[in-house]
Design a protein that fits this description.
With 279 residues, the chain is an alpha/beta fold. It has a single domain (3-277), classed as TIM Barrel (Alpha-Beta Barrel), CATH 3.20.20.140. The chain has helices spanning 13-19, 23-30, 39-49, 61-64, 71-80, 97-108, 119-122, 132-141, 171-180, 196-205, 223-229, 248-256, 262-277; strands at 3-8, 51-56, 86-89, 114-117, 145-148, 186-189, 209-212, 237-238.
């Protein structure tokens, strides 16, 4: 069975440089070490598990002033390794017109899939009206965006959560922009705890909103979501890992053991991503 991972971080030295202020918090939150991966180790993880990943760019410069894992970097990985299917670019909405120009370049020249946004770690809410020109431009570029929802391990168990505010990742912010930009395809990333019911409502109500389940062990995902994967949201749900947070060996095994039919697994692991994202 084809397996598309729509949410995969590189885990390389560059990604660690970007995430540096939060690495210790991630270790505590996940209860594991976060070793730096070489490109070869990363690629071996993909090929050994038969996974085709979409690599995620990350720009935290506005919040913590670290070097971004930028569009050129993730597009370069995609072009260098055949096993990497595509790349989510990223732009900082606070940059205004410069962000729009950067998005246009990333789509037209670097050929990224679309753009990923991490509202909590980046310190903004996607429904901020100041960012509407950016969403309008991305909608006109006819590419999707992926927006993290719910709690994050970034800043977890640190004093004050390292200053990060969870409210930035409420799924109703996605609902706002989905309503105002109906041609913009939006993938909500992660189960969205503690706003699982709200995220479910958004995905049910908005035809242009999809949902991927990265960053959580399957046994911790609420039963309501597992039920909807085989039911009313079966055409909208996608597989994501949040690699290197969780191993493919664990995630694939656990999803295979839920008891879904082959048809449901096919949709979840690849068909919905193929249909919605053109992968």
């Amino acid at each position: 069975m084809r397996i598309i991972d729509v949410h995969c971080h590189p885990g390389t030295a560059r990604w660690h440089e970007t995430s540096q202020p939060f690495i210790e918090a991630l270790r505590r939150y996940w209860g594991q070490e976060w070793p730096v991966k070489t490109e070869e180790e990363m690629v071996a993880d993909f090929t050994r598990n038969g996974v085709e990943p979409v690599i995620v760019a990350l720009d935290l410069e506005h919040q913590v002033n670290t070097r971004p894992t930028d569009n050129e970097y993730v597009a370069g990985l995609r072009d260098k390794y055949d096993c990497i299917l595509q790349a989510w670019g990223t732009v900082d909405p606070y940059r205004g017109r410069a962000a729009i120009e950067q998005a246009e370049y990333a789509v037209k020249k670097l050929k990224v899939l679309g753009f990923h946004f991490h509202p909590i770690a980046s310190g903004y809410t996607v429904s901020d009206r100041a960012f509407y020109p950016l969403w309008d431009a991305i909608q006109d570029l006819d590419v999707p965006i992926c927006v993290d929802i719910g709690m994050t391990g970034m800043g977890g168990q640190m004093p004050g959560g390292h200053g990060l505010k969870l409210r930035h990742a409420h799924p109703f912010a996605v609902d706002e922009i989905a309503a105002d930009f109906p041609r913009l395809k939006i993938v909500m990333a992660h189960p969205g705890y503690p706003w699982v019911d709200e995220a479910t409502a958004v995905c049910l109500h908005k035809a242009n909103v999809y949902w991927e389940m990265s960053g959580w062990g399957v046994k911790y995902i609420p039963e309501s979501i597992k039920r909807d994967i085989r039911g009313r949201l079966k055409d909208k749900m996608m597989f994501g890992s949040d690699y290197p947070s969780l191993s493919y060996e664990r995630l694939i095994k656990e999803w295979m053991q839920v008891g879904y039919t082959d048809d449901v697994l096919e949709k979840f692991f690849h068909k919905n991503a193929e249909t919605a994202l053109g992968l």
